[in-house]
Amino acid sequence: MNASRTIISASPLFNGLSEAQLRQLEQIGREVSAARNQTIFMEGDEGSGFYIVVSGRVKVFKTSAEGKEQILHIYGPGQPVGEVPVFAGQHFPANCQAVEKSRLLFFPRQAFIDLITAHPSLALNMLAVLSMRLRQFTVQVENLSLKEVPGRLASYLIYLAEEQENPRSVHLPISKGQLASLLGTIPETLSRIFNKMSAQGYIDVQAAEIVLKDRPALEELALTGRMVE
Predict the structure, then answer these.
(1) Exposed, middle or buried: residue 202 (CB in 10 Å: 0-12, 13-18, 19+)?
(2) Banded model confidence at residue 207, pLDDT cuts 50, 70, 90
(3) Rounded to two decimals, what is the model's pTM?
(4) Which of 153, 179, 180, 212 is the most buried (most CB within 10 A)?
């Protein structure tokens, strides 16, 4: 099985499909390469299809009129990107850029809709993924609007621990500058929070590796949103 087929079969969008259906998907998919920092699509571009990340990592973000960037999502291998316009038939609602050298599979909208018509289970999978994304957005809005930066960081570290299936330590998949944007703050503030959380025994920072020294305290911080002074 080649890399593209492996990614397609592992993607939550295509869970449970037969080998014949996976081959059909592979036939309509077109591989796209993106250099680090290369734009994949811009907000307002026609939603002519969607992508699945094969390798590398991409960010989805919005930019304010003043040029401030707010990262909405970071996606890695197997994850779909820009799938909303497939159903809405509209334009991309945000920007997408490669965080590192990446390869993606592009699925044209009409060809994919034809497959959905023939195989309704695809639509159910997409609804499941979109529901999960909506829940993630709800949590993100809650974090940005109701929690202070330490609580946002604690929530993200716990999320990474669950995603990476390691309760004791996590690997940051993005730079600390990108993490600051994702958490709605600036790098200087994030650096101070990392130092403070390290000093109080929540975590131990070893470059991109973060040891979760006190998981219960982190969970309490994520819940309350504030550190005990």
Answers:
(1) buried
(2) confident
(3) 0.70
(4) 153
